[in-house]
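Think of the structure tokens as a kind of shorthand, similar to the way a musician reads notation: each symbol stands for something richer, in this case the local conformation of the backbone. In the example below we present two proteins back to back. Begin with the first one, reading the sequence and then the tokens, and try to describe in your own words what changes along the chain.
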Amino acid sequence: MVTPRITREQWNQHILGFPGLVTDAEQLQADLDQLRLEMEHDSEVFPDSTARIIELTAGTPADTWSNWAEIEDDTPVTPVTFSSKVTEETHITGLLIEDLSDSDKRYELEIAWGDDKTRFLVHRFLSGEVKKLPAIQFMRIRAESIPVGERVYYRMRCQEPLATCEVSLRYHHHPL
């Protein structure tokens, strides 16, 4: 059986008879472009100095959430906020747990953006000397982006009151 050949004009007439198909193809291409951006992008790290840390503190008493606090580094006098880096639509792609104040304890962390604290990350982790993971752990984040100009907050709880956790964030901007 021979497949009949059609001309470009016949094909265009056929496609134009189904305008939704063209729109769907354009949306599919936009979605593919977005997925590619998530796979291939130039990441930044916060804090952007190896001399700086982000220290998160759990609430008190034990297993109590801390108050929401803006994520910032430990720069003396005027800490740098992560929110100051949200100059374009921003996506946090990873969180590195660098150190914990208490071994053999479970921690839980939430990160959110905006005044309404729109949560985009919840993570539970533990650290220990024996039969548990070391403090250094990397977590990939696949969450929605942070809109331009929004503040970024955290809250944390732990089995130990006022436990601390040192982290760094990997992030990238989305083109406007």
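Once you have a description of the first chain, move to the second and do the same.
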Amino acid sequence: MKKNLCVLILLAGALVIASCSTTGSKRITDSSGDKPSWAGSSRISWEENNKVFIRGTATVKGNERVDGCYDLAKLDAKEALVSEIQSYIKGILDNSIQSISENAEVVLGKSRTAEFEGKIMGLRFAERYFERAIVSDNERVECQLLSEISQKDYDRMKRLIVDKVQEVDPKIKEAIKQKHIDFFSAPKKDETPAVTN
């Protein structure tokens, strides 16, 4: 009797666990076609053939427009591009100087938002993909957008942001200049430094 009761309890527990694990499943009800490889990737940005590719994503409720979801994915792609440039610039500055002025931080912060006073020239939205799905009894639309920008336009965008930061903080301009001087005056790996007595 105890043995049957234990088996019954274990069986009931297994059924409860199995039913809980299926409540979070995703059931796709509509899509824009076959899912492209870039849409299944975890990469947000990558370089290939002298272009920088950026994947923007957005999710909206199932009763909202797919075009609105794509608009949000465009904003996400733009923010990802500018955020990547911002991180690059902060890396250069952090290696050059210990602190960035408050004004420079504001400019770098604005570069990630619509407040930035520059256009992203050359950014093109190449492909898009959406899925309408039911997840845990809630319908939602997931949109993904593949954007691309030429390496030349990407470098121009970096230069534009650096120029804006240098305008508000002369220390940064001097630090970048010093970094370039240090780079060109440093001995090469195969050179031995001059010995002075």
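Compare your description with these statements about the second chain. Strands lie at 26-31, 45-48, 51-61, 124-135, 138-150.
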